[in-house]
Amino acid sequence: MSGPEQRARPTRTRKPRSENPSATRTLLRASGVLALLLAVVYVAVTSYSGVPGRSYKAVYVSVPQTGNLILHDQVRIGGVRVGQVLGTTVDDSGNARVKLQLDKDTRLTRDTAVAIRANGLLGARYVELKPGRSRATLASGATIRGGADSLSFGVSEALNTFDKETQGALGTMVRGLGTGLLGRGQQLNDTIRVARDAMPRFKLLADTVLARTGAPRRLLPSLAQGMTPLDENRRAITALFGPASDALAPLVDQRSAVQELLDRAPSTLTVADTGLQAGVPLLAAARAVAKSAERTLPYAPAALRATTKLLRTSDEPLDRAGSLLDEVEPTVPAVLKITRSLKPVLPRLQDLLDETSPVLTKVAPHACDIINFATIFRSMTGFGGGGGEGPNGPAMAFRLQVILPAVGEALRIPDPTGLVRRDGYPAPCKYLSKPYASATTVRVP
Questions:
Q1: Over the Cα atoms of the chain, what is R_g?
Q2: pLDDT digits (tens, 9 = 90+) for 397-437
Q3: If you average pLDDT over residues 211-215, what whole number do you get?
Q4: What whole-number distance in Å separates Cα of residue 72 and Cα of residue 76?
Q5: In this structure, are residues 116 and 124 in contact, taking their beta carbons and an 8 Å threshold?
Q6: 438 or 237, which is more confident?
Q7: Backbone angles phi, psi at 91, to 5 degrees
Q8: Rounded to whole angstroms, how far apart are CA atoms 320 and 328?
């Protein structure tokens, strides 16, 4: 407004601002900020051992081994975190004595069990408490004792059993697996899903290997030798996974039919094995036939030519054979009648042959001796008959044989008569090596 309606405004006076604050005020501000920082640091450092101002319960655990359990590792009951580890010492018995800080309202029974378990693949651990069924509870400061099985061994403990060279080789293998599996997450998940059912069989295989003394020690070098060619051809093997997956996809889609086939395979293989065993003699016979054919084939061309010639000249003989068969045809019924009549007799004849075969087998080697006996018997009973030369001298002659082996040889006396024999019991059919000597023809030198 202007003119008389304009009111005069009161003027305010401002104190001049000091450009340099006082040293006292600056010091107070710095002290406050420093105190706040120290409080934050204190809370951050001490909060690992519990929230300041909150009360806790202390319980001790005594176990033979703690693995790589460290300070502030978790304590769980049923998978829920109820506390942490505050420290580890050694008691008088040589066991590890672990101090646990638990929430104040944590209830533990007197039969509470303890286990130190793995909390991942990198070696982290946690303490698991398993309250029992007892109604009595543990007071603060009580000790829970665990056995030798309290510590569950994990990957880190398993790796510590190998020397540095083997651990380095395992690292190389893991890096190689990582490179090979890079970008194949979906295929790996499918493999894990399919391999889930195979884990019991793998465990059975592992138990079988471990049950044999020294088998794992022999198996690992063998696996190393087997993996070396695979490592040299890893790129080609990696390129094989894609086509193999496409080839196996139909089997996965029809896995029920494949499973049914596998269920029936053992019985089928048993039958096939029996058939193959029965076919071994057939193969042996086929081999013999092949060998015989190998010896016969060189003569086959000449035989085929002779056969061809025979067939060309066989018209007239075949005509005669036809006429002969026509003439023989009326006799066939009579022959059949005779064979039917002989049929009842054949079993008895077979029995007779079976009974006489052992006798004939014993007598056959002495056929010549029987003939000799008959000849001598004829000669001895030929008195009054006509004489004449036989196969063993004249009839009605007296037979004589002298068994004198030692004296004749010792005196070197020749025997022109042939009457002296060395062996009184010669072998079968050796008795008549020549006709008997006749006294009328003996010439004494």
A1: 57
A2: 555 555 555 555 555 666 665 555 656 566 677 655 455 55
A3: 85
A4: 12
A5: no
A6: 237
A7: -90, -175
A8: 12
Extract the tokens encoding 116: 């130190």
* Alpha-carbon distances, residue 317 vs 130, 250, 308, 322, 327 (angstroms): 108, 68, 15, 9, 15
Distances (CA, A) of 138 to 80, 330, 396: 19, 118, 132
Q: Tokens 């090979």 identify what position? A: 180
Rounded Cα–Cα distance for residues 416 and 414 (Å): 6
Terminal-to-terminal C-alpha distance of the chain: 199
pTM of the model: 0.35
> At residue 247, does pLDDT exceed 60?
yes
Burial track 249-287 (b if 16+ CB lie within 10 A, e otherwise) = eeeeeeeeeeeeeeeeeeeeeeeeeeeeeeeeeeeeeee
Query: Which amino acid is it at 37?
Result: L
Task: Quote the CA–CA distance of 85 and 100 in Å, as a whole number.
Answer: 5
What pLDDT score does 80 carry?
92
Angstrom CA distances, 19 to 16, 22, 252, 331, stand at: 9, 10, 84, 158
444: pLDDT strictly greater than 50: no
pLDDT digits (tens, 9 = 90+) for 96-111: 999 999 988 888 999 9
User: 311 in helix, strand or coil?
Assistant: helix
Token reading at 386: 């006509």
How is the chain split into domains, by residue range? 49-158, 164-253, 359-445
Please check the confidence at residue 286 and state whether its pLDDT lies above 80.
yes
Of 423, 426, 437, 421, nearest to 369 by C-alpha is: 426
